[in-house]
Every structure is written in C-alpha cells, then in structure tokens.
Automatic annotation (TrEMBL), chain A:
Its main location: membrane. It is a multi-pass membrane protein. Keywords: Cell membrane, Membrane, Transmembrane, Transmembrane helix, Transport. The chain crosses the membrane at residues 12-32, 61-83, 90-114, 134-158, 237-258. The keyword Cytoplasm does not apply. One of its GO terms (cellular component) is plasma membrane. InterPro entries: MetI-like (IPR000515), MetI-like_sf (IPR035906). SUPFAM superfamilies: MetI-like. It is found in: Cell membrane. It comes from Loigolactobacillus backii. This is Spermidine/putrescine ABC transporter permease. One of its GO terms (biological process) is transmembrane transport. Belongs to the binding-protein-dependent transport system permease family. CysTW subfamily.
TrEMBL record, chain C:
It is found in: Cell membrane. It comes from Loigolactobacillus backii. The chain crosses the membrane at residues 12-31, 60-84, 104-124, 130-150, 179-199, 232-253. Its main location: membrane. GO terms for biological process: transmembrane transport. GO terms for cellular component: plasma membrane. It is a multi-pass membrane protein. InterPro entries: Bact_Polyamine_Transport (IPR051789), MetI-like (IPR000515), MetI-like_sf (IPR035906). Belongs to the binding-protein-dependent transport system permease family. CysTW subfamily. This is Spermidine/putrescine ABC transporter permease. SUPFAM superfamilies: MetI-like.
C-alpha cells in the first residue's frame, strides 16, 4: 500500500491529543498532590506503603480474574456453536441487544431475582431446599458481573472463529484427529487472538467495576474502581484517586505490551 | 461504498428528525426563554405539583436538574459552565461551599417568612445568622428494624447493634461520616472529633461489628428493607419514612444517647443568574401551606414551624420523625472538618469495609 | 452427529435464556399494578400511560437517541481513519504506543474520564450541555471502533491492494473499492459497539452535562433514589421491543436485498454469456 495520507487521520490525532494525552497528563499531575493541595509523593507512599491498598489491589485482581474466567468459559462455546447456526449474524446481534438496557435497571432486576423473596428463592423453597442468602455473596457478585461482560467477550471470539478457515479443521479431521485434538491443536490456537481481545475487553473493566460492588456485592468486595469512585466523589481526594488511576493505566499498558501485536508479528515472520 | 453512504445519510436523516422533535418538545414545555429558574436538587426532592403552582402564580418557569451526592454537586458548581440558580446542599456542604466562595449571600430584605422557621434550626454553626442558607428539610440518623424479626426492646441503643443476635442481619448506609459517627457516639465521643485515639478506637469498634453487617449500601437500602431483606438498618430518617410507607412492619428509632442532626438547605450558588425568580421561589417555599405540602409529598421533616401545624396530627406528633425535646438536645450537627480530617474519616471507613473478609 | 447438535442448541438456548431473563423480568413487572419489582399484584397499563404523558421523559429519550446515533457515527468515521493510520505505521514500538494511548479511555474508570473531561471543558470555557456531551461520547467511543476495525485491516491480503494499484487505481479508488468493502463488517461492528457504549454511559455524561440537557441513564440514576419507578420499566420494555424489531427487520431486509442483488448479478451474467 502506498503510504496512508496522514491528513485523513488528522481528527484521530487531534482526539488523542485532546481527549487522551491531556486528561492523562492531568491525572499524572494530580497524583502528585495531596488533599490539601501540596506537591508530594505521599499518595504513592500511601498506595505502596500501606497494606490496605495493596490488599485491595490483589483482591481486585483476583475477582477480575474469576470474572474473566467465568465469562470466557461461558462465552467460548457460545461463540463457537453460534458460528454453526443458520443466521449467525442475527443471533450475534441478539447477544449484543441486552447491553442496550440500562445497567442499573438490569442490576435492579437481579436484585429482584436474587433477593430473599425473589424468584430463585421461591423456586428453592418450592423444591424443598428452603430460602438461601444469595445477594451480597461473592458468588452472586461474580455471576452478575460475568453476565454484564459476556457480550463483550463473545463478540471478538465470534469474529475470530468466523475467520477461521474451515479447511484447517477439515484437514485435521481427515488426518484422524479426534474432536478434542482438533479443538486443542487447531481451533483454539487459531482463535487465540480473539480470546486475547476478549480477555482485554473484560479483565481491565472488571478491575474498575463500581456500581455492582455496592448493589449486588453489598460493598463487601472493594475493587480499584470502587476506591477511585470514592476518592473522586466522596472524599474529594482527587490526588489519591488519580494515583490509583495511574496504577490502573500502567497495568493496562503492561498487559497490552505482553499480549499485544509484537508477538503475533514475530510468529508470522517465522 | 454506496451502501455505506446511504447508511450514513440514513442516520443523519434520523438525527435531524430527532433534533426537530427534541426542540419542538422543549418549546412545548416553554423552557427556552430567559425567565427560567434552574433548581439543582436531589432526585424527587420536591412535589412536582408545587412547581406547577409556582409557575402559575409567578409566571417564571422552573427547570429541575438533579444530583445524587453533595460532593458531585460541589464539583459541578465549582467547575462552572452551568447556570444553576438554587442548590440544596446538606449542612456540612454549605460550610464547605462557603469556604470555597461558591455561595452568594442572601439578601434578607428580599426574603419573607424566615420567621416561620423553627428558631432551633436557625443560626447554627455551619452558617451563623443564616447568611447563606435557608433550611429546607431536616432529619436524624437512626435505626430501622423489622418487627417480624426483631423485638422493639432489642434495638433502642447503638450498642444493641453489636449483639451476636444480629449476625449478618444489619445493613449500613454507605456514608463514612455517619457510620464513623455512630461508632463515636456509641463510645461517648463527639461526631466531630479530631482526636486520633478516639478515631482509632471507633474504627476498632466498627471492625467488631463486621460479622453483623450484611451489606453497606446507598439509596437501595430503602428497597431492601421494604422487601424484608434484612432485620435492621442504620439510615437517615427521610429514607426510613419512605421504607415505612412501603412496609408496615418497619419502625424507626433515634437512640436517646445521641445521634446526628442534619439539614438540607436552599442556597444561591455563584452560578446564579435570575435573582427575581430565586427570591420568589425561596419565599414561595417558606409559605406554610407550601412547605407542608412538600413535606407530605417528600416524607421528610419540615423545619417550618408554621407548616408543622398544618400537617396531620399523626405526622406532626410522631416521635419517630419529630422527636421530643430531650432527644433533640442530644443530637449533634456535623461540621466541616477540613479536607485532611475528612480524608482520615474516609480512610478509616474504607479500611472497615475491607475488613469484612 | 445428530445428538451432538441438539446438545449445542440446548447450550445456546441456555445462554440466551440467561441473557434475557433479567430483561423479561423487567418487562413483566412493567405491567405490575403493585408498583414494585417484587410482588406482582395485578395487570395494568398505567405505567405506559404515565410514560406517554411525561413529555420531559420523551424529550430525554429523544435526546439520548440523538446523542447515541450522532456520536457513534462521528466516532466510527474518526476511528476508522485512525485505524488506517495505525495500520500504516510500520514500527511495532510506535504502533504499540499508539494502541496503548488508544486503549487508555477503554480501561479508565468512567469517573476519572468524566471528571477530567469536565475540567477540560470548563478550562476551555465550553458551555456544558448538548455539545459537551456529544464530544465526550465521541471521545470515549473512538477506541472501541479502532479495536473493531484494526483486526480486519491486519488480516487483509496486501496483494489485493497491490493488484488494484497495478491496475491503475487511484488512492481513493483503492480505499473505496478495495479496503472499505473488506473492512466494512468491522466498521459496522464498531458503529454498533459505539452506539452501545453511548446508550450505557452514566458517569461521564453526569459530569459533562448541564443547562437542562440530560440523557436517559442520568435521569434513571436520579429517579432511582426513590427506588426504580415502573415507568422506567415500561420505557425499557418499549425501547427493547423497538430495537428488537429494528435489528431483526434490518437483518432480514439486508438478507433479502443481498439475495436479490446476487440473483440480479446472475441474471446479468447469464445475459452477457448469451
């Protein structure tokens, strides 16, 4: 291809400068100020020095991992089998459609479903198990978070499988591979980029979930997002909030570089 | 390419249609003229009928915009770019906004009916002489219990909440000042203490409460309690009255050893523009019949003494929401402790939340 | 073979049921006379009639759709051009750097984005309202468009472009005849996702809105203070049914058109052969 004329992407560059770099500079700048407006490293000391924030970070990563894993386990087979249906594009659209309903409303619906007098507990009482405490448990938090994230995982995996050349699969079958071998040696490695994209799209937002931690988790799970929200909206300690934000962004950049383009390119070159 | 272009044109056509509909609707509501008063209020915190009445009486239009926390409102007003004429902050926020020079002083000569307000609620520490604020609603912090699960005599005081009887039964409102304040009062200290020893002791005391805490939630607490999700909740009187309207098994107690007394107040932020309309509105809301109507709709306690007389006896004499003099004398008002101290309160509360597991 | 197939369908039915249960729950209770989302006491249309007489609410819905359609359109155009730019960068380090910048808004918590946009707009003296909300929605939708378009570009066969240039196509022709048709599915997916993000957003909009302009999610949050009113359920039910019809209708119209087009082409080819 002849070199792409940069004049066309002027707006994109402008966007990066105005809406990415400018806020980024602002956040980094703010992270060096304490709550009374003095220039300081105290926020970083508080973050890395006190056990509270590190414990919260680990907790947050742990829950994000669980959410991502559960989402992946549900989404991969869905994306795979969805690809074999007739009208698969229509079904894919229907997977995305639930995300158009307001998140808060869906959370309230789940509260109705999971509460003491809710539908699930009516069912449990009916089959003789008796009502259980479902809301405010870790399990229900992970479940509802995964519910929210599923469409964002299915989409990239679906696209990757969609692009998979069926002749590879056929070749593998012809050569006598079992279904499992075909899947683990051919299909999964060839769709790994879709999985990566899906994990990126789910894992990092899961670190910064905030509303569900309160509504469904009863604030028993505190994520980085909850802490940032508190510091921006309640404590008004924008410095500390920005510090956690900087940590999140650095984590994201590391994840991008580890799972990013470079490796793929290298493999292609071989 | 052709399909893409027609797709784009299609969307633009729909946008144009939507834009025309929107401006038509705006005109129909008459919100485009310059005589519009913008009230920046908590969600559903004024009777819509009163707004209609005000518009009919005075000819001014009212536009209500809403916020969901004092701090978010503070940020919006501080940054400007909007034209809010009146806002409704809580008392400690009045103090904070005053310090940040975000408020315009009231011109008392243009206000009629301030005498209707109970003198107990005027000239308080957060705003001496009411130079900046007119009380709008007031209330307390207290305990809500469900009489199907708890007997009345089991929850009369803050210390009762620590009883092992309530394991995984209590909901707390997600507010650092209030929950730390509860622990401080339980230990006999001031809710405005800056003494680190007392604060640490309060935090330790809260950690002991952890096994009893079912969840720490915000506005949803009303719905949860109304649905019998928990036996006991610590929350504000206004929220309590709303839950009780939906579930007759709920009752509200203000512990006699003391609690918090809070106010929401009408103030004029520095973004204000339409002063005639502002004073017309303040005077309108001070009129006893209007204040009473608003209190009936919102369900919070009115500071307007004349309005109190117009309320049904069952409401005005209800000790849950209009407590007796002795209880009121033990109530404490929050003061703005400055950002550093507030930060410490919040950090302690965050640590308590994380202590849960 | 047959048995395995039914297991697959069973699984898919299960996933769809899971995704739609809360939505049907919402719709079911929009007909509840009881006024809450737990006890169904009787059937009523009351919440729907309330909704239709609430002209402020209708205005908000219209504004929300306007913002969503327009912002996602502009974000798709800018994002697609941006993806082309990233694609044309050869050095992997630069590429990764731009991609990281691109992704920052995707991973930053909404509250941070909202607060920093607010500071930014007020710093510029921008009046808060429709314009600031539109710009913010464009801003946070661009990265997802880039992420949807870029993989399509990466898998594009370069020889296609070479062939086109060899045959004397201009740059614009290469773009409109070769590249664009190839990446179109990614562009549409990007538009779709941008639209989704815009509809969903609460925190950013809350910060950057003002002067009477509101979107649906901000209004829902404000009203949720008193518990969700079933009027909102009724609204969601209507919007859901409407978008369902739109999506299904669009899909089948598309199918019908493309099959007509192929038939036409076949006929054309047939006549040419004659």
């Amino acid at each position: 291809m002849k070199r792409f004329n940069p004049a066309y992407s002027f707006l994109y560059i402008l966007w990066i400068v105005l809406f990415v770099i400018a806020p980024l500079v602002l956040i980094v700048y703010q992270s060096f100020f304490d709550i009374s407006g003095h220039l300081t490293l105290a926020n970083y000391q508080a973050y890395f020095g006190s056990g509270t924030y590190l414990k919260m970070t680990l907790n947050s990563i742990w829950y994000a991992l669980l959410i991502t894993l559960l989402t992946l386990l549900i989404s991969y087979p869905t994306a795979y089998w969805l690809n074999q249906t007739k009208n698969k594009q229509l079904w894919l659209l229907l997977i995305i459609l639930p995300t158009w309903i307001n998140l808060l409303l869906k959370a309230y619906a789940f509260i109705g479903i999971l509460s003491q007098n809710g539908s699930v507990n009516h069912f449990l009482t009916f089959v003789g198990i008796g009502p259980q405490q479902l809301l405010f448990t870790n399990a229900s938090f992970i479940f509802v978070a995964a519910y929210i994230e599923i469409p964002f995982m299915i989409l990239p995996i679906f696209n990757a499988i969609d692009e998979l050349n069926p002749s590879f699969v056929n070749a593998s079958r012809d050569l006598g591979a079992t279904n499992w071998q075909t899947f683990s040696k051919v299909i999964f490695p060839l769709t790994i980029n879709g999985v990566k994209a899906g994990v990126q799209a789910v894992f990092i937002p899961s670190l910064s979930l905030f509303m569900l931690t309160r509504l469904i988790g009863g604030n028993k799970v505190i994520t980085l997002g909850t802490a940032i929200e508190e510091h921006f909206l309640v404590t008004q300690n924008w410095g500390m909030g920005s510090t956690i934000g900087v940590v999140l962004i650095v984590a994201m950049v590391i994840i991008m570089f580890v799972t990013g383009e470079r490796r793929k390119k290298g493999r292609k070159g071989e | 390419m052709k399909r893409l272009v027609s797709f784009i044109l299609g969307i633009l056509a729909v946008c144009l249609l939507l834009f025309m509909t929107s401006s038509h609707l705006q005109k129909a509501q008459g919100l485009t003229n310059s005589d519009t008063l913008t009230l920046y209020n908590w969600g559903d915190y004024i009777d819509p009928q009163l707004i209609k009445k005000f518009q009919r009486e005075t000819g001014y239009k009212v536009r209500v915009e809403t916020f969901d926390s004092n701090e978010a409102m503070f940020t919006k007003i501080q940054q400007g770019g909007t034209s809010y004429d009146l806002a409704v902050p809580s008392e400690y926020m009045v103090q904070k906004m005053r310090k940040a020079h975000l408020l315009k002083p009231l011109n008392k000569s243009r206000i009629h009916g301030l005498a209707n307000i109970n003198s107990r609620f005027l000239n308080l520490g957060f705003d001496p002489d009411n130079r900046y604020s007119v009380p709008y609603f007031w209330g307390t912090l207290g305990i809500v219990y469900n009489d199907q699960m708890v007997k009345a005599n089991q929850v009369q005081h803050w210390r009762d909440l620590w009883s092992p009887r309530f394991r995984n039964q209590i909901m707390l409102v997600d507010s650092a000042r209030d929950i730390m304040g509860m622990a401080l009062i339980e230990q006999g200290h001031s809710v405005n203490t800056t003494n680190p020893v007392q604060l640490n002791a309060a935090k330790k005391r809260l950690d002991q409460l952890s096994p009893n805490v079912k969840a720490i939630v915000a506005d949803e607490i009303k719905m949860y309690m109304a649905q019998d999700e928990a036996a006991v909740a610590v929350t504000w009187s206004g929220e309590a009255s709303e839950m009780m309207a939906n579930n007759s098994h709920l009752h509200y107690v203000v512990p006699s050893e003391g609690s918090n007394l809070w106010f929401d107040n009408l103030v004029i932020p520095r973004t204000a523009k339409h002063y005639k309309a502002i004073y017309a509105f303040i005077n309108f809301m001070l009129r006893p019949e209007n204040a009473a109507q608003n209190a009936t709709y919102v369900g919070y306690a009115t500071p307007n003494k004349a309005a109190e007389k117009k309320l049904p006896k069952s409401v005005a004499n209800d000790p849950q929401f209009y407590p007796d003099e002795k209880t009121i004398s033990h109530l404490q008002v929050y003061q703005d402790l400055g950002p550093r101290m507030v930060g410490i309160y919040n950090d302690k509360f965050l640590e308590f939340k994380m202590h849960g597991h | 073979m047959k048995k395995r197939f039914s297991w697959q369908n069973l699984y898919l039915i299960f996933v769809f049921a899971l995704l739609y249960v809360p939505i049907f729950y919402l719709i079911f209770y929009s007909f509840n006379r009881g006024g809450t989302m737990t006890h169904f006491t009787g059937f009523t249309w009351q919440h729907y009639t309330e909704l239709f007489s609430d002209s402020r609410m209708i205005e908000i819905v219209v504004d929300t759709l306007l913002i969503a359609l327009l912002s996602s359109l502009l974000a798709t155009i800018i994002g697609t051009l941006g993806a082309l730019q990233i694609y044309s960068v050869k050095r992997p380090v630069v590429k990764n750097a731009i991609l990281s910048l691109n992704n920052i808004l995707m991973v930053s918590p909404d509250v941070i984005i909202g607060a920093s946009f607010l500071i930014f707009f007020t710093f510029l003296g921008f009046k808060l309202g429709f314009g600031s909300v539109l710009l913010s929605h464009i801003a946070f939708s661009i990265p997802i468009v880039v992420l949807m378009v870029l993989p399509k570009l990466n898998e594009m066969n370069l020889s296609l472009i070479d062939a086109a240039t060899d045959l004397g196509a201009t740059n614009f022709q290469v773009f409109s005849r070769v590249i664009l048709p190839y990446i179109a599915p990614g562009v549409f997916a990007g538009y779709f996702m941008a639209f989704t993000y815009s509809l969903d957003d609460f925190a950013v909009t809350f910060f950057v809105t003002g002067n009477g302009f509101e979107t649906l999610s901000v209004e829902i949050y404000a009203r949720a203070r008193q518990g969700i009113s079933l009027e909102i359920n009724a609204l969601s039910a209507l919007m859901f049914v409407f978008s369902l019809l739109l999506v299904v209708g669009y899909y089948f119209l598309n199918q019908y058109n493309s099959s007509k087009r192929t038939r036409k082409r076949q006929r054309l080819e047939a006549t040419q052969i004659k």
